[in-house]
Specification:
This protein is of the alpha/beta class. The chain has 24 helices and 20 strands. Helix content is 50%, strand content 18%.
Amino acid sequence: MTSTQNMSTKLSESNDEIDLSKLLGTLIDHRWMIIAITCFFFLVGVAYALLATPIYKADALIQIEAKSSGMPSFGDMGDMFGSESSATTEIEVLQSRMVLGKTVDKLDLTTVIKPNYFPIIGKGLARLLGDVNSVDINRFEIPSHLYLNANFISYQLVFTDLNIGAYELFDNNDNKILTGRMGELAQEGDYRLFVSDVNSTEGMSFTLKKRSRLDAITWLQDNLSVSEKGKNTGVLQLSFTGESRAQIETVLNDISQDYFLQNVARNSAEAENSLVFLQQHLPSVKAKLVEAEETLNQFREENDSIDLGLEAKSNLDVMVKLEEQLNELTFKESEISQLFTKEHPAYISLMDKRKTLLKERDRLNQNIQALPKTQRDILRMTRDVEVNQEMYLTLLNRVQELNIVKASTIGNVRIIDKAEAYTRAIKPKKALVVLLATLLGGMLAVAVVLLRAALHRGVESPEQIEQIGLPVYASVPKSSWQAGIDIHLKRKKKNQEYEALLAETNPADLAIEALRGLRTSLHFAMMEAKNNVVMISGPAPGLGKSFVSVNFAAVLAKTGQKVLIVDADMRKGYLQRQFNLKWENGLSDLLSGKSDIKNVVKASGINNLDLVTRGAVPPNPSELLMHPRFEDFVTWASKEYDIVLIDTPPVLAVTDPSIVGALAGTTLLVARFGVSSIKEIEIAYRRFEQAGINVKGFVLNATEQTARNANEVYAYSYE
């Protein structure tokens, strides 16, 4: 027992080693499976490439220029309205709800309509067949409270008569909302629908959806891409993707135009604000001028037109200039306060200049106080007239300047290229899709093959069996002849009662030659056996144990030995099919006392070979085998025949083989190439050891020469 465990440990360690040649051989052996899976994925990729809805792309170019007022000759006035706007800022403005919302409203993008096709493939097939269905809707309104329940509300639009354009609108519960005709406004309660055009077949239905304005803007943002071409070029590339080339061109052109118009409006708004400020002060300045002129004229009339002296005129000129500069600073302060805070250097500089002028004005006022009273009065009045007149003229000039600035504003945005959609779709990339699908299929197929090989390591060479201490007596090749017979019988009749015996139909088959080698090996193995009874069993069903038993019996009988083969599988035995016999009067009938030996032993039709079928299926097969009648039967058969073969059920399924093995002198274990695992064989071997049964040898059935186990399979075929 300990030696068996040690050999099992060595075997598991050797199985953990990676043999690249065997991995390659595994892939070669399963090449057709790999090719089939790869071809399937290739076809899926082709189908997707053909049926997937093509996505088109439209792009446009916009240039962001240095911002100016349009009147560079005005000096400080033009500088006041000039500032730089980075491309990053303009990109954010382009993608803002302010700009995109106008496009949503203008093109009514809150309304979405799609034809109802067969799921998954219907839309693609319709496109390939040229069956285009479309509806143009100019207006669709629903009750406002419905937006509170769902962000995406859908309806069904069905055209009942295309000749007159009649249609019906249903909600999700198949309730009719309204009916109407193409070219007419249909109205029912708060629902309004205007269908302008339809291109469809009779009975075609459409899904009409209403989404919120914010959802429509989000859809635009998701499909709109804005980027600067090059570094600091000021040229923005706008890209928009969608299913309809006409729609994406229209949408992108509208977005470009709305952005251009808001830019112009923004630039002219700066001049407009300054113009309003000046126009508010112009009437008060004019009133002061009129009042000052009237006061001066009245004073002159009362004092006989007194003229100013040279000193007074000189002071007047200086005073007028100071007042003019102070007024200019007042206007500039009003304008600069809209752009900067009081802590800004430009604002502080302006206030310092104002203080200097005020000090100079105070000094002049002190000089004027030295003049006679009449001269002072006429000087003051004349100063008021000239100052107000200069201020009024300055305001008039600036108003005219701002009017020209406002009228000449063109913005700093220029549309270079209008939107145009590419003729070829950007998605799906058909060649790439097919290539990736094929590669994915190939990799998946290889992974499946390697995973199956890793999870189920079936026996593939006699050496693997001998490593657990079990000698291999024969490796029986898989018979293509027998496989052809089995396929023919299955096609002819599912429950075929007769299955041809390979040893009779094709005695030169390699499988039969291997069984002849087994005959020689078994002859020497039985020399030390207690009797001539041979039990043939296996770990699990479906391994070809019965195939080996009947053909081996036929091979033994051909040598002139008198052979009896017993079907001890009283549950599912079918050895009678190989000899065109019935299962009645078999082993179960003998053991239950319903029949005697003479009735259960039947001629097989092959010289020197007799057969005992399973008989009726009993409720207690194991108990019948433990009955003394079975031991008596085995003793009788051992005396009457040169060799007795007992075909038993799988040892891992039932306990019957352990009972039969106690009476047999020789036990053989059969497993199938590539199906039976080492662990399974080892457990079966231990099961027999625990029952005190010594397994003499092992037969590896249905071996195949593959790329994985080249030069290993037939090493034990002709012992």
